[in-house]
Amino acid sequence: MENKPVGCVLGTHPSTSLEFDVLVDPENYLEMDDIVYVESSIKNYPDADKVTFYGTVTDIQRYNEGQAFDGDSRLVKNGKLPVDYTFTAKVLITKIDPEIFISPRPTDNVYRATGERLAKALSFNQMKQKLPAGIMRSKEPFYLNFDYINGQKGAHISISGVSGVATKTSYATFLLYSIFNSKTIDFNETNNAKAIIFNVKGEDLLFLDKPNTKIPKDQIEVYAKLGLPCGPFKSVAFYSSPRLGMLGAPPTPSTDQRKEGVTPYCWTMKRFAKERLFPYLFAEGDQETTTLYGCISGITDKLEYLASDNNPENQGEAFLVYNATPISTLKDIITLMEKDIHGEEDEDEEEEEALDFSEKAEKATKKAKKKKKKSLWFSRFELLGTKQALLRRLRTAADALETIIRSDISDPKKYCIDTDQEAITVIDINRLKQIGQKFIVASVLKNLMLQKEKTGQMPYKFIVLDELNKYAPREGSGPIKDIMLDIAERGRSLGIILIGAQQSASQVEKRIISNSSIKVNGRLDFAEAQSPEYNYLFGSFKIRSGIIKPGTMIINQPDIPAPTSITFPFPAWATRKGEAGEEAATTKKNLATFDNKF
Question: What total of structural domains would you count in the chain?
Answer without folding.
Answer: 3
